[in-house]
Amino acid sequence: MNDISTILITLFLAINQSFFMGFFFMISSYFNPGSVDRKGSTAFLVDRLKRLGIPLVLFMLLIFPLTIYPVARLYGFGGALGRYLSDFYTDIRNFTFGPLWFVAMLLLFSLAYVLWRMFTKPSDPPAQSEGKAPGNAAIATFALVLGVATFIVRIWIPVGEGIPLLNLQPAHVVQYIALFIAGILAYRRNWFSGLSDAQGKFWLRIILLLIAVFPLLFVFGGALEGDFDSAFGGVHWQSFAYSVWEQFMCLAVVVTLIVWFRNRFNKQG
C-alpha cells in the first residue's frame, strides 16, 4: 500500500507540474497582442512595469525580509529588526524573487515581446483571424519537440537546480517560453476557438493513456528503489522518457481544458 500511495502522490504532482505554470504563461501571453494593439508598445510596457514590477520590488525589499526575520530569530539571531534589515540589505545574496519568480519571468517575457514588436515594426498589427487550429499531428509533434528540448536542457541542469535570484528552475523554462509564444500565435490565429470538440475528446483519451503509462515509468525507472535522479536529468533513458511524457501531458491537458472551459464556462457568472 505504501508503494501504491507513493505512485499516486507522485502522479498527482507530476501531472500538475507538467502543465500548470506553462498554461498560465500561455493564457497571459494570449492577451498581450490585443493589449499592445490598443495601448501601443510604450504604454503597454509602462503598465507591465507598474502591475508586475512594483509588486516584485516590494516583495524583495520589504515583504521577504520582514517574513524571514522571525525565522532568523528562531534560529539564533539576537539583534533587533533594524540591525537585521541593515545586514540583509548589504548582502546581495539575500535578494530573491521567491514565490514571485513567475511574475519576474512574465515581466521579462512581456519585455521581449514588446522589443520584438518594436523591431519588427509592422505597419498595422495583424487582426485576429479565423485561422484553423493546429491538428492533432501538429500538436503531438510540438509536444515531442518540447520533450526532446527539455531532455537536452536537463542533461546539464536537472530538475531541482535553480537560479538563486530568480528562484527559477531552468529545467522547465523551455516549456514556459514555448507556451508563451504559442499563446501569442493562438490569439492572432484564433486557435482557442478553432480547436474542435473532437480534439478535446481525443486529447482527454491521451491524458488517460499517459496516466496509465506513468506507473510503468515509475516502477521500471527505479523510483521505487529511490532512484529519482535518473528521471530528473542527465543522459538517462528515464530522463528522456519523463521529459517526453511531461510535455505530452502538458499539451493534452491544455487542449482538453481549453475545449472544456470554452464549451461549458464561456459566459459571465
Question: What this model shows, in words?
Answer:
- The protein has 269 residues and is mainly α.
- 74% of the residues lie in helices and 0% in strands.
- The model has no long low-confidence stretch (mean pLDDT 91).
What characterizes the major β-sheet?
A: none
- H and E string: HHHHHHHHHHH
Poorly predicted tracts of residues: none
Q: Give the strand tally.
A: 0
Shape category: globular
Helix/strand class? mainly alpha
Mean pLDDT: 91
> Please, how many helices?
11
Radius of gyration: 22 Å
Strand content: under 5%
Question: Could you give the topology of this structure?
Answer:
Blueprint (H helix, E strand, L loop, with lengths): L1 H29 L1 H8 L1 H34 L6 H9 L11 H20 L15 H21 L16 H17 L1 H4 L2 H24 L8 H4 L4 H28 L5
Can you give me a brief rundown of this structure?
The protein is an all-alpha fold and 269 residues long. The chain has eleven helices and no strands. It has helices at residues 2-30, 32-39, 41-74, 81-89, 101-120, 136-156, 173-189, 191-194, 197-220, 229-232, 237-264.
What features would you highlight for this structure?
11 helices; mainly alpha; single chain; 269 residues; globular
